[in-house]
Amino acid sequence: MALLTIFTCIVLLVLLVSWIKVNPFIAFLIVSIIAGLLLGIPINKVTASVQKGMGDILGQLLIIICLGAMLGKLVATSGAAQKIAESLVKAVSKKNINATGELHGNTSAQRIQLALVAAGFIIGIPLFYGIGFVLMVPLIFSVVYKYKLPAVYIGLPMLASLSVTHGFLPPHPSPSALVALFHGNMATTFIYGLMIAIPAIILAGPVFSRFLKKIPSEPLATFRAEELPEDKLPGTANSFLTALLPVILLMLTALFPYLNIQDPDAAKIIAFLGDPSIVMLIALLVATFTLGVKQGKTMGQLAGSFTDAVKDVALILLIIAGSGAFKEVLTASGVSTQIADQLQALNLPPLLLGWVIAAIIRISLGSATVAGLTAAGIVAPLVIQNHVNPNLMVLSIGAGSLAFSHVNDSGFWLYKEYFNLSIKDTIKSWSVMETLVSFIGLIGVSILNLFIK
């Protein structure tokens, strides 16, 4: 009954948004309230669940998305994105740029795509998915606009690399928590995860995206700027360092635990400076000087640019808030536990069972983290009883937790709204990519299980 209720609510959400053309934020509110009532949440607590879900997800993302939009706008309007795009393309495809600066040749586009995938993978290891998305999207769009390339074809592979690192590799929250729960080894899990992540990214990214070149996409306008003459552009080093400063700061703070510094005050300071919100604020302040004031812009001009950037992402924030409300209603109703209990009765190998439970909870609730941790609680006893490799169980559940992201997942809406796609095209590209990653991850775990005991 619970699964039928969730399925009905998801269908209703899709119909409201795509057929009746209801604003997605309003549609999420309507469906969240209906789902809460149908799943048995007391009528006087439904709105509290909705508000909690919105607050929880916005508490994590509001500052990051707003500051990221401001930084992205500044990187675009200052010409830094143009400089980065030109430098990146020349580095990998210098022979394929003609005298007028235009790109030609499929091989050149593929090299650019692979360069962005590599950047997304490196950046994705220390960053949460949402932060990496906000930071890398302006770079994707700068290349797309500059060289008139298909946005989905160029951008989706980089997002695949971010998603894979989020689901498979420590130190991300879900795999790290699973390693601790199953008493695995963090370094071993990372190595095994790397062995699975690389083919998953290649197949679900560059290979799959070849079928997506004709998907129409006009990416979010806030990252589009008029092309500037060469003498008006910031320097190459300034452009790269400023745009990537958040990544650099986060990577430096991620290394701190391995330096074996015992001073508790130093640890507190590093923890404060390493908080994503503080990192984004520092990066924006630096960019305000290096790409703003230093380039001759007044503070009034910069303030206007920042205001426009926030306006451009306001609807995205509301939609993400709505998806958080829906997720919280499903979580508060206890439906994830009901689903897991029903699936535990299936007679499946433990690694496959972990993947199946995580995948179904992910599809039902939308949260990869909730899916992973819920599945882990169910299959934990089986790991000991059946002598299952704990590191492989971490990866199996991590793969399942990425399956078929759709309308109840905030990542779905981030991608849809930033790339300005229809729901149909978002499912054809984003949802299928996530599902490919999930199945390739399961296959990789199964192959490793043949050789690792």
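the 2nd protein, sequnce then structure:
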Amino acid sequence: MYDNIEWDKFRHLFKRQEIPAKTILLNEGEISKQAFYIEQGCLRVCFNNNGKDITFQFFFEGESVSSIESFRTNQPSLFTIESIEPCIIHSISKKDFETMIETSTSIKQQVEEHAFQRLIFYQKLFLSRIKDNPEKRYLELLENNPKILLRVPQHYIASFLGITSVSLSRIRNRR
């Protein structure tokens, strides 16, 4: 978990799971009943747009992920969470999560900060899709998150960038 004595108090609330690649942890349209912490591996967040699979975020070791909107409000999830590679994850139920943040002010603040950082990420992603061309988005990905390019299949990267795999190959070949 997080390297924090406060989090260690709640370690028993998390369920450790080893999952293979291509495991769906949450389907778009379902109510999220768990949040996940990644010990090892990579997860992607995606949605279906008229039959086309669109990836919009990747999560790696030391990061947590959930459909926070669904998890907190019991509304259907707007996206799917899927493993890209074999993973070791730790899941926590909504009830245990609520107990944890009600019990610990420190953890509640960390969770709020995490949600705020995710909001900032989505704002940057949204603005990048409007103002930047695909090559610029690729170069920013290369500079800011090179591990994505090493660990994630090209078709997911292309989807994340809003382009086809062929276009991504052309951009890579120009570099």
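The CA atoms of residues 135 and 174 lie 10 Å apart. The mean pLDDT is 92.
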